[in-house]
Amino acid sequence: MNQEHWNNIYEMVSAKPIINAIGSVTMLGGSTPIPEVKRAMDLADSSYVPLVELEEKAGKFLAEFIGVPAAYITSGAGSALTLAAAAIMAGDDDQLIEQLPNTHGMKNEILIQKKHRYWYDRCLEASGAKLIMFGSEQKTTEKDLEEAIGPQTAGVHFTMYEQNPDPDALSLEKTIEIAHSHKLPVLVDAAGQIYPLENFGKYVKMGADFQCIAAKYLGASQSSGLALGTEEMIRKISKQSFVGYEGRRIRGIGRPHKVDRQEMMGVVAAVQNWLTINHETRLSNIEKQSMTLINILSSCPYIEASLIENIIGHQPFGVKIKIINHKFTVHDIVNKLKNGTPSIWTRVVGENNFIEIHMFGLKTDEEKIVGEKILEIFE
What we know:
The protein is of the alpha/beta class. It has two domains: 3-30 and 278-378, Aspartate Aminotransferase, domain 1 (Alpha-Beta Complex), CATH 3.90.1150; 35-274, Type I PLP-dependent aspartate aminotransferase-like (Major domain) (Aspartate Aminotransferase, domain 2). Helix content is 39%, strand content 14%. The protein is built from 15 helices and twelve strands. The strands form three sheets. It has a seven-stranded mixed sheet, sandwiched between helices. It has a three-stranded antiparallel sheet with strand order 9-10-12. A two-stranded parallel sheet has the order 1-11. α2 runs antiparallel to α12, α3 packs parallel to α12 and α13 (279-297) runs parallel beside α15 (366-378). The longest helix has 19 residues, at 279-297. The protein is globular and about 65 Å long.
């Protein structure tokens, strides 16, 4: 294959490349590994290595680097959730591990605030666990959690929203306090809680038994993630994993959750990079990209573009676009951009009346293309 074909690799299979103005979303590929990760993955190609050992040694290295008791590399944050749910139900019992997802004879209920139900709690159910809601859509109290705990309760799940905390949800501190008083573990989905840096591993340090992180947000491959937790929790997760299936010859549900050696070392490199880079420079560059887009759109009387000022988590800044005094709706703009050349993917989140543009998936200067194509629509 010549260089021209390599430059158009997707065309070889008749797939159409797009400009990703949405951000880090799974359906568009999740992430582009940073140079440090690509180098680590290339170097990992040089030799084979027993993956049971690599999981153990890489996890220990990362735990010490992050400052948590234990860590384990998984095939994404969703995988970490499934394995953790399996771990709190089956524990160290190989017979129960092989029985999952059939949970007969074991505690199989995971409590979750009604306010915390979300798209990815399905990953918990994939283990065979049953989700039991407590509280209401308006408020969750300590009494709600106390009354929800029963003989089949295996643990409590908490969905972390540092960017938009809900004052009417039961706090993680109280969740941990109540759950632990009943000797129940607490699982935290903190997939995108990676900045400020004190949030990286924060919830395990607060006393949660487990938290997950999506390594794609750090510049690793999309199909990689981290489980952080107590030594006991991570040991139980390892027994559910694909290396537990192959290395111990115990038929757990984690066999499809495979991670290769290259990805493992890529995660190590991504974490090292994330915890040592200059984040002020990173944020400044993203803010500059966002302001470039805003300045381009400022010439159009039908567009109101403003800066998203959030810097917490994996997608800081960005641009909020509203349509004013024009027959086009934000959904019209999304569709026109998607069907244009080049195809530009944006989105309207939920019932919002504005488009969110994020810089995570944009290459250098692609924000200019996005801005110009939006102006063309109104011209």
